[in-house]
Design a protein that fits this description.
heterodimer, A: alpha/beta, B: alpha+beta, twelve-stranded mixed beta sheet, 14 strands, globular
Chain lengths: 709, 358
């Protein structure tokens, strides 16, 4: 029988003309999940060659968990190429759909599987994130070669996301979930609380210097209201930044505006109930954080704790501002929280709530916000300047001046002008100013406003402060005015380096309203300035909107980090999303809550990731647990004082009994006043003397009066 | 019999090496590397009996007349699990005077189908062969040098006119000087060599694989030249008409899903030790088409002992009509597993001929 042989030269292993295969190289072993093994093979063709930024691979039929958004590793001759999986396409050799139709009509029923099934391959497009060459000093852009593909390990993912190049601290932002399973030290698959194999998770970090400046800065969230979880993630990221910077010894604060109900009013209450509050949380159906969430926090190196230093500022309800005495409204010692235009007024929960009240002088800084466009002509402007020059800085003083002007015009010999202003202009001004207090709804006092001991909405920040301006119940004029004035004040402080902290985060929701595309003037200019220069002045803008296409391009262009949640179909077709692949866009149309697409300065391609529930209770739940007078969770002021002293003094804190004794005979409001003073005096790590001794002094003042301490 | 596999170096590299030697020795050759392969050369004539069985007397196995019969479909699963096919590429390399020097690359394999989705080449059955077809007795120094060089390099060389030389050396010299005839003969030789490779593989399957899978059947793409149990030959382009008159009309009028009754060729001197039993099957609707559209001839010695097998085998073959190999112009008679196997074999040949100018 003839021996069948194959011809010619045999290439041997030793002395071979071929170099070792890169996927067997020790240098790259840490990058590939060899336990799971090969999951596919790189292919390139004439029509679809591999490139520096994209390649294609077909998936092994056993790689059933491989999907869009996963991170894989292919190889060029001397490098490992880490890429994120994008568009999948399933190919067969069927020339047209009619072939299958005819197959089914000739031989097979619709549900039949024939003797031979036409082979199909699932081909994924992979977008290159990074390439790691054998040599650390070589940056290779060579495309992958045909060869096996593996799931990337956390080490590979961190390399691909530029972690080794971070100049600042890494701030956890999201969690990436890959298609391979997480394994313990023994190589066994880890299971979740439902008993299912857990997929490999890798934290996605942001470079502090590129999120909070100075290298780059700002973050932006886009997504549909209620579906995209923009605010939830912003809170999570702010908490992450707070915890990270605290470890570094850096001071950080944040400014937010509460625009809807009690959403941001209970950020000092944890999502995970303390034992004493478990029943109350359960009662309202707030179960706290699940095991997966807690595990996620642990994996991210974060604690799921509420913000420690929340300060809430709110204007008064219309018509409820305190009366002026001798021309002044004194806010020091304020305690009538029910008069404030906020949902956080329950006794015992107001020690961190403060009023916002303006005198006329402050309101007239923004006449274009106070008066309508048609009214604000040159003549009215002239009259407003007259008022400023005369030092008219309260409504009371203005009323007096108008009386004086009325008397002037009552004199028939005085003519139609007063100080160069025509009677008609003055009458118009009288009419417009008369309605000003109604228009500004609780924001404008009659007298001059003064306060020495309580913080104001535009005062410098303290470390770990989360300042919330509650404009949810203010009318549109008042809320726009508040946002504009406070942000402008913050910017001015930043320009003078008077922020009080190393980094300030300003969160603005509905950014398309305050900085619309094609808009001019007002807050838009300030926000553009912050976007352009803020990272050098330690202020960064965290903005959120439903419609990214309707936000000023300069602000978005300066943003180093962008997050995308679920986006509507009318919006996603806009040019603002052109840099996102079609597959990613399709994903965004149906993205579930808790999942976001992230773009960051260090990432060559956007990535999908998830985040746990925020560490604070939902606003509406917080209101039900702590905001109701009948809630069993609401603490008495004495208990709050005990907690505060414990936070400040630790083991040296006086016991609860001693504090209770010192508070005997004082009503809740008096204790709350003392709490406020102690917070102010000792928050932000500022240490001014003996805390307990000072507390006792303040309690004595409340009991006996100021002269007898 | 053993089949070994080693990595081939490319044809192009080999030819380059030999060309260099020839140039150094001032042996005159004319390059033909850009000529099309003989498979695609329309001037190469195979002759009416080139690749099919000769016509002659037949013995009717199912009744006195060859007639059309509907195939009774076998409800059970098909036991066809193996498929065998080969592919070749026959390339002109040089011309020395009027004599072409031909390289023939062939590949063959047995494909196994374990399940509808688990299809692959049986281990150690993939054979790739590079063969040189060069006249040895021309007394031409260049041709002799080429043969010597090839054989020194371990290449296999065959003279297509070896038989003719043994019978009549003078006639041999006339034959080798006819250029087109040389090409035709080279192509014939290459085809025969490939057929031999396939036959060897079939024997291998019979001896090494079939014993472990007694119920499994194998379909051979082409003539079945061996008496092997559980084997079916499938001829897609039968060129010799064995039937005549009304029987031929019955053949060409076969509706889809019908077969002819079976018959055997009566050997006349070219005696074999087993009967060649065959029949035709219409696989696809031929309305408006050439009379041979969808028509295949099936060969299996097994039916001689069991005529019930004719319907059953026909039923199994009809079941292979889906999926269609619609990217191939021969889809009407090409079984999909054979189509897959051909693609794999062509890839193998491409690997050997990578970079070849034609």
């Amino acid at each position: 029988m003839e021996e069948l042989t194959l011809d010619t030269t045999t290439m041997t292993q030793n002395g071979s003309a071929h170099p070792p295969l890169p996927w067997t190289a020790e240098a790259f072993r840490a990058f590939i999940d060899t336990t799971t093994g090969e999951i596919g093979r790189v292919v390139s063709s004439e029509r679809e060659p591999s490139g520096s930024h994209v390649f294609y691979f077909w998936a092994d039929e056993n790689a059933l968990t491989l999907d869009v958004g996963h991170i894989v590793v292919g190889f060029s001759e001397e490098a490992a190429v880490v890429a994120v999986v994008d568009e999948p396409r399933r190919y067969s050799d069927m020339q047209s759909f009619l072939d299958d139709y005819f197959d089914r009509h000739v031989e097979l029923g619709l549900a039949d599987i024939g003797a031979t099934q036409r082979p199909e391959i699932l081909v994924f497009e992979a977008k290159v994130l990074a390439t790691r060459h054998y040599r650390e000093d070589v940056i290779s852009k060579r495309p992958v070669i045909n060869g096996p593909v593996y799931f990337a390990t956390p080490e590979a993912i961190e390399f691909a996301l530029g972690r080794s190049n971070y100049s600042g601290k890494p701030i956890p932002a999201l969690m990436h979930t890959n298609g391979n399973y997480e394994r313990d030290a023994n190589g066994e698959i880890v299971h979740d609380e439902a008993g299912r194999p857990r997929f490999q998770r890798t934290p996605i970090y942001l470079d502090e210097d590129y999120l909070l400046g100075p290298e780059a800065g700002h973050a932006n969230w886009t997504g549909q209201s209620g579906l995209a979880t923009k605010t939830s993630h912003a809170l999570f990221l702010i908490s992450s930044a707070f915890q990270t910077l605290r470890k570094e010894g850096k001071k950080v604060a944040a400014l937010m505006f509460n625009v809807k109900g009690p959403d941001l009013l209970w950020l000092d209450k944890p999502a995970q109930p303390t034992p004493e509050h478990e029943a109350a949380y359960r009662e309202i159906g707030s179960p706290g954080l699940g095991k997966d969430d807690l595990d996620a926090y642990k994996a991210l190196g974060l604690e799921p704790k509420a913000f420690e230093n929340v300060r809430i500022f709110a204007p008064f309800r219309p018509g409820y501002e305190p009366p002026s005495r001798t021309g002044y409204v004194d806010l020091d010692g304020f305690s009538e929280y029910s008069r404030l235009n906020t949902d956080r007024t329950a006794p015992g929960e107001t020690d961190n709530v403060y009023p916002i009240l303006w005198s006329l002088e402050t309101a007239l800084y923004y006449p274009h916000k106070v008066f309508s466009h048609g009214d604000l002509d040159d003549k009215l402007w002239g009259f407003i300047y007259e008022l400023r020059e005369r030092g008219i800085d309260s409504v009371d003083e203005l009323d007096k001046l108008f009386k004086k002007i009325d008397q002037h015009f009552d004199d028939p010999e005085s003519g139609d002008y007063w100080e160069g202003h025509h009677k008609a202009t003055i009458r118009k001004a009288q009419n417009r100013f008369k309605g000003l207090q109604d228009k500004l709804g609780g924001l404008l006092a009659h007298g001059k406003v003064r306060s020495k001991s309580i913080p104001t909405a535009d005062s410098p920040f303290v470390d770990q402060e989360l300042r919330v301006i509650d404009i949810s119940q203010a009318n549109s004029t008042a809320s726009e005015l508040l946002v504009t004035s406070i942000i402008n004040a913050v910017w001015k402080m930043a320009e003078k380096s008077e922020l009080g902290v190393d980094k300030l985060i300003v969160f603005v929701d509905e950014l398309n309203k305050y900085a619309p595309a094609g808009g001019e003037g007002g807050l838009r200019d300030t926000l553009v300035d912050i976007a352009a220069r803020g990272r050098h002045l330690n202020v960064v803008l965290f903005g959120a909107q439903q419609f990214r296409s309707r936000v000023d391009g300069e602000i978005l262009g300066n943003c180093g980090t962008s997050f995308y949640g679920r986006i509507g179909d009318e919006e996603i077709i806009n040019a603002a999303y052109r840099s996102i692949s079609d597959t990613a866009k399709s994903e965004l149309l149906g993205l579930p809550k808790g999942r976001l697409l992230i773009r960051h300065a260090h990432f060559r391609e956007p990535l999908f990731g998830t985040f746990p529930m925020p560490p604070t209770i939902r606003g509406i739940d917080g209101h039900r647990v702590f905001g109701s007078e009948h809630s069993s969770a609401r603490k008495k002021p004495v208990d709050i004082l005990v907690d505060l002293l414990r936070d400040l003094l630790g083991d040296r804190a006086p016991d609860a009994g001693l504090v209770s004794t010192e508070c005997l005979g004082l009503d809740d409001d008096a204790v709350v006043k003392v709490i406020k003073k102690i917070r102010l005096q000792y928050s932000g790590g500022i240490n001014r003397g003996n805390v307990w001794a000072q507390t006792q002094k303040y309690l004595r003042v409340e009991r006996y009066g100021a002269g007898k301490r | 019999m053993t089949v070994t596999g080693t990595q081939s170096r490319s044809l192009r590299a080999l030819v380059r090496a030999i060309s260099q030697h020839l140039a150094e020795g001032n042996y005159p050759v004319t390059d033909m590397s850009r000529a099309t392969s003989l498979e695609l050369d329309p001037t190469i004539s195979l002759g009416a009996t080139g690749s099919d069985r000769p016509g002659g007397e037949i013995r009717r196995l199912e009744g006195p007349v060859i007639e059309a019969r509907p195939v009774e479909r076998d409800p059970g699963p098909s036991p066809i699990r193996y498929f065998l096919d080969g592919s070749q590429k026959t390339l002109p390399v040089w011309r020395v005077g009027t004599v072409p020097v031909i390289a023939s690359v062939s590949a063959a394999a047995v494909l196994k189908r374990t399940s509808p989705t688990d299809i692959g080449i049986c281990e150690d059955t993939l054979v790739t062969r590079l063969h040189w077809i060069v006249p040895r007795h021309t007394r031409n120094a260049t041709l002799d040098r080429i043969v010597d060089l090839l054989e020194e390099m371990g290449e296999s060389v065959t003279d297509p006119f070896e038989n003719e030389y043994e019978q009549d050396p003078d006639n041999y010299q006339r034959l080798v000087s006819a250029y087109t005839h040389c090409l035709e003969k080279a192509y014939d030789t290459a085809s025969s060599m490939r057929a031999q490779v396939e036959l060897n593989l079939l024997r291998l399957w019979e001896q090494m694989i079939s014993p472990g899978d007694r119920d499994g059947w194998i379909v051979i793409d082409g003539l079945l030249d061996a008496d092997i149990p559980n084997a079916i030959g499938l001829v897609k382009n039968a060129q010799v008409q064995h039937l005549h008159g009304q029987e031929a009309i019955a053949l060409y009028d076969l509706p889809v899903g019908y077969r002819t009754s079976a018959y055997a060729l009566v050997d006349r001197g070219d005696r074999q030790q087993w009967d060649r039993a065959m029949w035709y099957l219409r696989m696809q609707n031929a309305t408006g088409q050439d009379a041979r559209h969808g028509l295949v001839r099936l060969e299996s010695p097994a039916i001689v002992g069991d005529l019930d097998l004719v319907d059953r085998i026909s039923s199994w073959i009809l079941a292979e009509r889906a999926p269609r190999a619609s990217s191939d112009s021969r889809w009407a008679t090409l079984l999909y597993p054979i189509h897959l196997l051909e693609r794999m074999l062509k890839r193998r040949i491409q690997a050997v001929t990578a970079g070849w100018p034609a």
